[in-house]
Amino acid sequence: MAAYSYLFKYIIIGDSGVGKSCFMLQFTDRRFKSQHDLTIGVEFGARSVNLEGKTLKLQMWDTAGQESFLSITRSYYRGAVAALLLYDITNRESFESLSRWLNEARNNANRNICIMLVGNKTDLEGQRQVSEAEAKAFAEENQMLWMEASAKTGHSVDNCFLELAKTVLEKLESGEYDLNNEQCGIKVGNANFKNSLMRNSMENKQKCNC
User: Fold this and answer.
1) Domain extent for 140
2) Is 82 a domain residue?
3) Is residue 1 in some structural domain?
4) How many domains does the chain divide into?
5) Closest CA to 151 of 2, 33, 15
6) From CA 35, how far away is CA 14, in angstroms rounded?
7) The CATH number of the domain where 161 resides is what?
8) Interhelix angle for 98-108 vs 70-77, to 10°?
9) pLDDT digit string, tens, across residues 130-183
10) DSSP string over 133-172
11) How far is CA 196 from the centre of its chain?
């Protein structure tokens, strides 16, 4: 098993059809699937990244956007430390649903969950129905990060996940998370354990050389 410093649990939420599954697939596999079946319940993905000298394993839960699956997806909120809230820049209705999704997240997730608002499908700029200015204003009003991206071309997809991970890491290092709480959405990885063993070994060798 590859060593990692921390595992961060993400949840991807938003209306059906905004591109959540394609967004995750672009990040995990660097590919785009034009025909994607509707998510039934929850799909899973993972990828390890290097950030600020640490190896982070990002574990993602892609949730179904249909109302009929809300009772299933709600159970995944509490175990997540971060959320990507997606809307389709060419679909006004998906933007107008954001308040409902945000309430779902904040009512069911951990108090310290980090949320990024993501406008997907920038490759369809000519069909835009949601301006950058109003989306950014909504994000700022609700204390969220914000970015636009394209699951089809891969534009800024990595940046969305990495900027969110950076925010979580900053909060972690400032002591905002209780790592003893299994529901905090962060798991201390084997890299930290391995590094601790290496430090102890070096300290023991130095003592022996004295």
Assistant:
1) 6-209
2) yes
3) no
4) 1
5) 33
6) 18
7) 3.40.50.300
8) 50
9) 999 999 999 999 999 999 999 999 999 999 999 999 999 999 999 999 888 888
10) HHHHHHHHHTT-EEEE--TTT-TTHHHHHHHHHHHHHHHH
11) 28
